[in-house]
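Q: Could you fold this chain for me?
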Amino acid sequence: MKRKKKLIILITVLMSTLALVYLKLLKDTRGERAFSKVTVKVIDEAGEPIKNANVNIGFLLDQHWDKSISKTFHGKSNSNGEYSSTFLGARESGISATKHGYYRSTTRYKRDEIKNVFWQPWNPTIELVLRKKINPIPLYTKKTKINLTTNYVDFVGYDVFVGDLVEPYGKGTSNDLLFLLEKNRKTAFEYSWKLIVKFANEEDGFYKIYPPKLNLYSKLVFPNKAPEDNYNTKEIICSSSANPQTYTQFRTTDDSGYLFFKIRTHETNSYYGKALNFEYYITRDGLRVEFIYYLNPTINSRNMEFDTHTNLFKNIKSYMKIRQP
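A: Sure. Below is the predicted structure, expressed as structure tokens.
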């Protein structure tokens, strides 16, 4: 009889515990927490699995990364390039993979919906491509800032080897890129301006890069090499305007997020580089242009894989330094 009583008590305690756990899970579910499982498959650019890659899967505990701590699981990919983990968390996961000889890749994954106490889809396979390091080399690279004013009535040259405007506005000596600002400012709420970026040498040009040629999840976003030909984009035009009478603001930026370029082209010889993140800021007396660029100093070499420890620009300010390959 005593055994029976003990068994009943044990079953009651167990059922109560399970009920409390279920209620806790239900509460978490309403707050967007539920069980989820994720499988990461690490592959190379040819689609082949990468074994023994270091994989991190982070589960968000709340709905915002910046307001919570996350639980991260670490492991090695198996012979199929896969690693899995399960946790009680929120909708989003952060994923990364590394291996010696490859560039790190990261991504995020958001689940669709909760059924009972499980996120759906259950155990999706998320592919993450690692790009192989081929030949990182020293390059000229920096984040540059150019202040243009309406006092410049003609194009102003920029020397990419020196990393500055040409004389008398800077220390540069060769007109590689040319900048011109056209601005009409009536008030702070009524204005228009246009920025033109082009080349001094008509044989030079930009080559625009679009997905899927980009790997936006890798530390090395661009292809390893610049293309040899078809630098057909000769200028970038950006404009902005505001009209208080129609309550409209308009801004357009030429599609210039990811670009290769070639400069100082003469017959069959050129210098190659890449540029990204052209940004434009209106100032009191003009415009500030910011962008990142990389330049290979070897004539006709199209290698764009930057060794981040050997920037050829020396003694530049910390905000100008680039740590991405």
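A (continued): The chain has two domains: 31-132, 137-320.
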